[in-house]
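Thread: Newbie trying to understand structure tokens

Hi all, I'm a second-year student working on a class project, and my supervisor (Dr. K.) asked me to get a predicted structure for one chain before our next meeting. I've only ever worked with sequences, so writing a 3D structure as a token string is new to me. If someone could post the tokens and maybe explain what I'm looking at, I'd be very grateful. Here's the chain:
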Amino acid sequence: MRVFGIDPGSHFMGYGVVEKNGGQLVHVDNGCLRPKPAASLPERLEQIHRALLQALTTYRPDAVAVEQVFFAKNVASALKLGQSRGVALLAAAQSGLPVFEYSATAIKQATTGYGRAGKEQIQKMVQMILKLPELAEENASDALAVAICHLHTNQVLKS
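---
Reply by user tm_fold:
Sure, no problem. This is what the structure looks like when written as tokens:
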């Protein structure tokens, strides 16, 4: 099973692709979609949407896993983050893929064993789990953690 994980954002959107082969989790790719900084919000959302559709076509995942939004610094940030998540959900739906959403606590628990783990702990555990030669960028690491969470959760649900 191949999962495309997404860490939503309107300025940076992390993505991570992880595949489960037998009992092994295998890193396929990760990165960060970066729309043009000077672009308006609608233009950034369109650039993210286009890039996500391309990535979903390229990586051909079986499912998409997205981090749920539960907290933002202010209302305006929360709205922009929600719009970015909406674009990610739309791209997955247009690609005919099932979407699974996980809270930050569930992602941290599945990745580190501790629901209140910090960003650095998540990056290090993602690096260890996927045997990466170096730490992934923060947004990409978060997206890989979302994919790992889904693969762990999906396994438990099938048991």
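A couple of things are worth pointing out once you decode it. The two ends are 16 Å apart (CA to CA). The CA atoms of residues 14 and 121 lie 17 Å apart. Feel free to ask follow-ups in this thread.
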